[in-house]
Amino acid sequence: MEFVPAGEIIGKKHQIRTIGLRKSPHLPDGEYTFVDTYCMDPSCDCRRTLIQVLLNGVHVSTIGYGWESQKFYNNWMGVESNKNYMPDLHGATVDMSSPNKVSPNSILSFFNALLDDKWIAAFKKNYNAVKKQISKAKK
Ligand SMILES: [Zn+2]
Fold first, then answer.
1. How far, in Å, from the CA of 36 to the mean position of ligand 1?
2. What is the rounded distance in angstroms from the CA atom of residue 108 to the CA atom of residue 61?
3. CA of 88 to the centre of ligand 1 (A)
4. Which of 19, 72, 80, 32 is nearest to 48 (CA)?
5. Reduced to 3 states, what is the DSSP secondary structure of residue 4?
6. Between the N and C ends of the chain, which has fewer C-beta atoms within 10 Å?
7. Tens digits of per-residue pLDDT, 34-57?
8. 108 burial type by CB count under 10 A (0-12 exposed, 13-18 middle, 19+ buried)
9. Which phi and psi (to 5°) does residue 28 adopt?
10. For residue range 72-127, what is the model confidence (pLDDT) as tens digits?
11. What element of type H or E holds 35?
């Protein structure tokens, strides 16, 4: 499954988030940029984003974030929710593809601390805009 930054699909309407961090006991100082990417399959209803975290322009981590309930993802994957081999797609996790150049637990805490309703709403909006744009392009 290919994930592409929202900005490459929906252009200027999309804004990435950059946060400066100083003197954190857990993460290096610098400018952290969160680039939300979305899957490029117009028929796929995965409802999640993979967020590339850049530190001063260097890709240091990849966070997967799913805004729907775990029940939604269980249904979507076609598994029963009482089986516990299901990966956790709800909420934020460090993705398997992450380069892990900073502490995975620390970057996850940082992300969760920044996560608010406004940011979640932006992910949903970007997801929908990307899906709309790519399904138009396929016609
Ligand atoms: Zn997908």
1. 14
2. 9
3. 15
4. 72
5. strand
6. C
7. 999 999 998 899 999 999 999 999
8. middle
9. -65, 150
10. 988 888 876 555 555 678 899 999 999 999 999 999 999 999 999 999 999 999 99
11. strand 30-39
